[in-house]
Amino acid sequence: MTEPTLPLRFTCVWEGDSAGVTPAAFLSAVVRATGLSPTALPTRSSSEGLSRVSLYVPAAPPTTREQRAAWTRALEPDLDSEGLSVAITVGAMAQHGPALVVLDGDSTLFTGEGIDLVAAHAGTQEEVAAITAAAMRGELDFAQSLRRRMETLRGLSVSVLDQVRQDYHFSPGAAQMVSAFHRRGVKVGVVSGGFRELVAPHATDIGLDFVKANSFEVANGQLTGEPEGDIVTAETKETCLRSWASELGIGVESCVAMGDGANDLKMVRAAGLGVAYLAKPALQAAADVRLSRPNLAALSALTLPD
To answer: What is the reported pLDDT for 2?
Structure first.
């Protein structure tokens, strides 16, 4: 019986339109890391300040996720280009790109942490930021840590959220990334441990297809210091990934999930391709792809075919 084969795509992306990695150098690095003998040559392209080299292998022996992760880790230092990111996709994703991309909110789709910005108006920003950082490193239970942070906001006027929304910005490259995915028919969602009052208006502006986040409980025009409804946890994030994929009639192997903290681990591991964005060590170690520069457009460049 002939051994089954699957397509693989090796892609590296870096900032700048010159220098970086040549197709020949990329081909040599892939051969050294994998032992494969690709028959096609890599292609190189540049767009919106990003350069990329991509090598498509239409028929490769089956690989495990762990094997592809090991190849990625071998390619990164071998290519030795500052700020370079590497992705290896397989199967339908290698051929057509993902069908669904699910992003964390705070410190991923958006710069900074929304609750820290709100806490600045309550005079508790330093305390809240310290708890946030520990939770993102995985040192604290996320739901408990969120309640502790929200308690410091009790009595704050709900009007403060309108002010904070003005300082709650997308990460660089967000619009280009979403536009690139939508042009190829890829759905994009955000599932955030942050707050819907901040996330949802911006998500609508940029045209996201799915949104899930926490909500502030409000009474008499003031924050009560409690969440309204269930808290978005690591389990919630994985559930959203699976639920949205099911709604679209696709498997999670066709999905990309990206985040920065420990509460993103479950969805990053569940997706067909898991991405760490400027991430804490625990997520860096678990992810298939590591983005070390603040430019979300690199995600679409890494995962969409030529």
So the answer is: 46
Region label for 44, one of left (φ > 0), alpha (ψ between -120 and 50) or beta (otherwise):
beta
Does the annotation mark 288 as catalytic?
Answer: no
Summarised one tens digit per residue, pLDDT across range 209-222 is 999 999 999 999 99
Question: Beta-carbon neighbour count of residue 138 at 10 Å?
Answer: 17
Q: Is 116 a catalytic residue?
A: no
CATH topology of domain 1-96: Alpha-Beta Plaits (3.30.70)
Q: pLDDT averaged over the chain? A: 93
Tell me the CB-side half-sphere exposure of residue 35, using CA atoms within 13 A: 5
Q: pLDDT, tens digit, for every residue of 133-142?
A: 888 888 888 8
Residue-level length of the chain: 306
CB atoms closer than 10 angstroms to residue 166: 8
What CATH number labels 103-241?
A: 3.40.50.1000
User: Which 3 state secondary structure label does DSSP give 131?
Assistant: helix
Domain boundaries, the chain: 1-96, 103-241
Alpha carbon distance 17, 46 (integer Å): 6
Catalytic option among 17, 80, 104, 205: 104
Q: Which of 17, 78, 80, 106 is catalytic?
A: 106
Asked if 29 contacts 39 with a C-beta cutoff of 8 angstroms, the reply is: no
Of residues 185 and 15, more confidence is placed in: 185
Residues with Cβ < 8 Å from 120, sequence gap 6 or more?
none
50-60 and 6-15: which strand pairing? Answer: antiparallel
> CA nearest 54: which of 7, 99, 100?
7
Over residues 53-96, the pLDDT tens digits come to 999 999 899 999 999 999 999 999 898 767 899 999 999 999 99
* Cα–Cα distance for residue pair 210/264, rounded to 1 Å: 17
- pLDDT at position 1 is 39
